[in-house]
Amino acid sequence: AQSVTQPDIHITVSEGASLELRCNYSYGATPYLFWYVQSPGQGLQLLLKYFSGDTLVQGIKGFEAEFKRSQSSFNLRKPSVHWSDAAEYFCAVGERGSQGNLIFGKGTKLSVKP
Amino acid sequence: DSGVTQTPKHLITATGQRVTLRCSPRSGDLSVYWYQQSLDQGLQFLIQYYNGEERAKGNILERFSAQQFPDLHSELNLSSLELGDSALYFCASSVAKEAYNSPLHFGNGTRLTVT
To answer: What is the pLDDT of residue A66?
Structure first.
């Protein structure tokens, strides 16, 4: 069965520091991978997605993610974190022919220290 | 602003009651998805409608039902409510039939509290 694991429930980084949020997936076929962000009191917003091609994808707000098939990972990175990046981040995977719904990880909450 | 509208924002009700959550998708989107978000289960897919027809079912209880109307808005009906149904319920919409094929646009959710 498809599954998505985000090993870190909560991460705290200092403003200006780099960030990496981990995501591992379990999937048979070529996955379609996504990162969403949820700010307090808001719905989820798409940061970036990977379908095929270049394994390093750029997203909004200065985020990027790298697909590594050998490690079944799709980690999210940002070189310099801003206080406004404090939110919860969700990795998700989809599959062609799976009736189309996405499987979400349980999320990583990011706190940013001044 | 995602363009997806959910009402009400908050709902407090008693066990055994029935409630209806409403979702208006983004203009032009034909797919509507319902998700339940709780602390212990995370974000769970409930059901999807595409252009008025049910397309996919996830972990939706038999006490829950949904429909999508001709104007594409959707309603999620929750009945015989239990304490464990307390959660944040999200609606999302997209242009395509398949969730992987186009971004999901999420509403701000309805927080349901069952007392």
So the answer is: 96
